[in-house]
Amino acid sequence: MTQGPLPFLNRIARKSPTEERCELCSASLGPVHQHLLDPNTRQIVCSCDGCAVLFCGQAGAHYLRVPRRIRSLPDFQMADLQWEALMIPISLAFFYRDSTVDRVRAMYPSPAGAIESLLTLESWSEIAAEHPALAKMEADVETFLVNRVGTPADYYIVPIDECYRLVGLIRMHWRGLSGGAEVWKEIHQFFADLKTRSVEVRESAHA
């Protein structure tokens, strides 16, 4: 289980009414602000625009700026056998390239947090070869988000903080063995909101 996003998830869970501040200089932040990622620890920090430029704008910088763009992939298709080869035990998962080890990691949300699935290079390479959009993701900070809970399935390329937000929602609202009605309502609303904020990227499934 990854521990890096836990501080970020705890901030989501608290829903604190107090004013949010830059975690690097303590400047006041608005509701929409920058997020920075430490690729070594996977921790996300909230940042003002000035610190985002200062700490991300040079080679060897400690942080990476998390982008805000959200891209839906309406033409994306994945065969059931391809999904099964990824060895994800549930129908929600996200994938990102970890630059510290130069490989793609597969994560899925759970009531305990984000859990890593053992991803084989062959299974991912087959899917990536068929979909050029996946090769354009920024390492560490952008993810391929898959939602196969309903029909049709949803596929997105989203900032890593959106995936951590989804993990946080599931941790907060999960009840009992099946999760309960509330958590599934929150998951549905999360993806509905994601769709309204996304830009469609049209692509042949076998480009």
* Overall mean pLDDT: 87
Query: How many helices?
Result: 7
Tally the beta strands.
10
> What sort of overall outline do the alpha carbons produce when their principal axes are compared?
globular
Order of helices and strands: HEEHEEHEEEHHEEHHE
Instruction: Give start-end ranges of low-pLDDT stretches.
Output: none
Give a quick account of the main beta sheet: strands, pairing sense, barrel closure: 7 strands, mixed
Helix content: 25-40%
Q: Number of domains in the coordinates?
A: 2
Rounded to the nearest angstrom, the radius of gyration is 17 Å
**Based on helices, strands and strand pairing, what is the structural class?**
alpha+beta
Q: Biggest sheet, strands in spatial order?
A: 7-6-5-8-9-4-10
Distance between the termini: 35 Å
The fraction of residues assigned to DSSP E strands is 15-25%
Highlighted features:
alpha+beta; Cysteine Rich Protein; 207 residues; 10 strands; seven-stranded mixed beta sheet; single chain
Structure report:
This protein has helices at 6-14, 49-56, 80-85, 121-130, 132-135, 160-173, 180-197, and strands at residues 34-38, 43-47, 64-65, 71-72, 92-98, 103-110, 113-117, 142-147, 154-159, 199-200. With 207 residues, it is an alpha+beta fold. It has two domains: 6-65, Ribbon (Cysteine Rich Protein); 71-200, no CATH class. The chain has a seven-stranded mixed beta sheet with strand order 7-6-5-8-9-4-10, with helices on one face. Strands 2-1-3 form a three-stranded antiparallel beta sheet. The relative contact order is 0.17. The model has no long low-confidence stretch (mean pLDDT 87).
